[in-house]
Amino acid sequence: MTDPRLAALAQALPELRLLTDAADLEHYGRDWTRRWTPAPLAIALPTSVEQVQAVVRWARAHAVAIVPSGGRTGLSGGAVAANGELVLSLERMNRVLGFDPIDRSLTVQAGIALEAVHNAAREHRLAYPVDFAARGSCSIGGNIATNAGGIRVIRYGNTREWVAGLKVVDGRGELLELGRGLVKNSSGYDLRHLMVASEGTLGIIVEATLRLTDPPPPTSVMLLALPDFAALMQVFASLRARLQLEAFEFFTDRALHHVTAHGGQNPFGETYPYYVVTEFAAGEAGEAAALAAFEHCVGEGWVLDGVISQSQAQAAQLWRLREGITESLAPYVPYKNDVSVRISVMPAFLAEVQALLTEGYPHFDVVWFGHIGDGNLHINVLKPVDMAQADFVAQCERVTRLLAEALQRHGGSISAEHGIGLVKKAYLGSTRTEAELALLRGIRGVLDPDGLLNPGKLFDR
After folding, report:
1. Residue 279's beta-bridge partner residues?
2. Whole-model pTM?
3. What is the mean pLDDT of the segment spanning 332-341?
4. CATH number 3.30.70.2190 is the correct assignment for the domain at 219-326
5. Which of 122, 165, 220, 385, CA to CA, is 20 to 30 A from 195?
6. Do residues 236 and 347 lie in contact, with contact meaning Cβ atoms separated by under 8 Å?
7. What are the residue boundaries of the FAD-binding PCMH-type domain, all occurrences included (predicted)?
8. Which ranges constitute the DSSP H helices of 275-331?
9. Which CATH number fits domain 333-430: 3.40.50.300, 3.30.70.2740, 3.30.2010.30, 3.40.630.30?
């Protein structure tokens, strides 16, 4: 270990695992964006809060920036280390620390995978309701750092609603205990919520106490085929009025094309322009209400075809058509937009954005999907094979500027659930005012006075 800074770290923390091999630097230095060449100084894998504190204090002493790292499933460049930073991976801090049956809470280390949290809650006949396709690889710390949403926001809300307490190591190496699981606490600013969606720029989340809830009722899944974009909100309103919705997701024919090419099965005999997959409380009343809602939507011309799951296996097959989209597109390294507006604004926004993207990407394969029920739209643009990467990104960013302007007009956000990271910081001004950005920088200056935690993400200093 020739770098004197790393030698000092190894001497101060001989039990800390440090990785410097080229393959490790590449693996831990990037996230799913794949747009930046990883170039970290080294990878640190602590196993305790005390080690995390010691690493931060070493970083201050040696002026080394730190990139906190969870599952690195992010899509905004928030976990990229491209400028000699130390990647601080929480993957070895992945244990369940405790369960409180009275508070119905689960305390975990930040590196634990979301799926492991689901399993731990299930052991106590409870549920942690935040869920999305990357559940097996994403970490709770990363979920909290981006306020991850997923497929059940319509019923349960975002990650923020389920965080009862946090332990965070700030940029000074101090351990902050925030929230402490209290249901009521009017003792000043809620610093716990400040850490949610902070993308590792205010502190390193090392431990979380999560609220649990009752398991969802037995559910059924329905896949609907729609004739056009305009029908989406009518179908949503009709189903929401008649059913207890757990999820309401949409995707396009291009999304279905890629998922079926990746192994998914189309239950229909033909291809339709748009699809909705929705999950709802089952039972005789639920099934009858779903059939009535389906017949109403068909009668109005909003739905062309549909299928309701008859088993858990079939429900899983239908969900795969939605959850398999990101994986099926990954080989194309798509340019992604993750935007949101108020649900009431969605029809007008969709009409404007559809026209904008049709004009901006006339020859590109554009794949749409998202959580229409909570106002969240995902736009994936696939690079033509014969187009240079730099030219492709430049054209996409030109369209994203127009998209950001449309979001500003409609009071929306350039990031619904993926965070800002490196990808979207140029467009943050469409969502936040200059006064807000000044406050955000000021808060960061207090908690990370040296600007060493995930620098360049969210905004430049």
Report:
1. 221, 247
2. 0.90
3. 91
4. yes
5. 122
6. no
7. 36-215
8. 283-300, 312-323, 325-329
9. 3.30.70.2740
User: What are all long-range contacts of 156-161, with beta carbons under 8 Å and residues at least 24 apart?
Assistant: 156/129, 156/130, 156/213, 158/130, 158/417, 159/130, 159/196, 160/193, 160/196, 160/197, 161/211
Give the Cα separation of 105 and 127 in Å (integer): 10
Three-class SS state of 237: helix
Element at 274 (helix H, strand E)? strand 274-281
Compute the distance between CA of residue 26 and CA of residue 24 in angstroms, rounded to an integer. Answer: 5
Listed in order, the ranges of the chain carrying CATH 3.30.465.10 are 96-211
Tracing tokens 């006339």 back to the chain, one arrives at 362
CB contact set of 239 (below 8 Å; sequence gap of 6+): 245, 248, 278, 280, 293, 297
Q: Looking at domain 4-90, does it have CATH number 3.40.50.300?
A: no
CA dist., res. 406 & res. 339, Å (int): 11
Percent of the chain topping pLDDT 90: 78
**CATH assignment, 96-211:** 3.30.465.10
Mean pLDDT across 268-279:
94
Instruction: List, in order, residues 6 or more apart from 24 with CB less than 8 Å away.
Output: 43
Burial (Cβ within 10 Å: 0-12, 13-18, ≥19) of residue 404 = buried
Q: Which tokens is 437 given?
A: 């950005």
DSSP 3-state of 168: strand
Distance in Å from the first CA to the final CA of the chain: 31
β-pair type (335-340, 96-100): unpaired
**Would the pLDDT of 284 be above 80?**
no
- The edge-to-edge listing of strands for the beta sheet with 17-19 is 17-19, 42-45, 86-89, 66-69
Phi/psi of residue 204, nearest 5 degrees: -105, 115
Q: Output the pLDDT for position 3.
A: 92
Residues 259 and 325 sit within 8 Å (Cβ to Cβ): yes
Are the C-beta atoms of 67 and 455 separated by less than 8 Å? no
